[in-house]
Specification:
This protein has three helices and no strands. By secondary structure, it is an all-alpha fold.
């Protein structure tokens, strides 16, 4: 049975305790912003493209990726 796309917050770090449910998401956002620091617009776009492909490969399930693309495209 194929996986379905998780749309609820799902960030965590093994072994780390969080006192607020949004904290792991905030940690990821901070890492993402830091990864883009001092990059040109072109370099930032390249980083995003590489990250998308790495994470898509990690997910691997085309039905989940198809669903994610549909959600991401909604309202754009």
């Amino acid at each position: 049975m194929p996986l379905t796309l998780t749309l609820t917050p799902n960030f965590s770090e093994p072994g780390k305790r969080y006192f607020r449910a949004f904290s792991p998401g905030d940690d990821f956002y901070e890492m993402l912003i830091e990864a883009h620091r001092d990059l040109s617009d072109e370099q930032s776009a390249m980083l995003n493209a590489k990250l998308i492909l790495l994470l898509a490969n990690h997910i691997g399930d085309l039905s989940v990726l198809r669903e994610a693309l549909g959600h991401a495209r909604d309202g754009v």
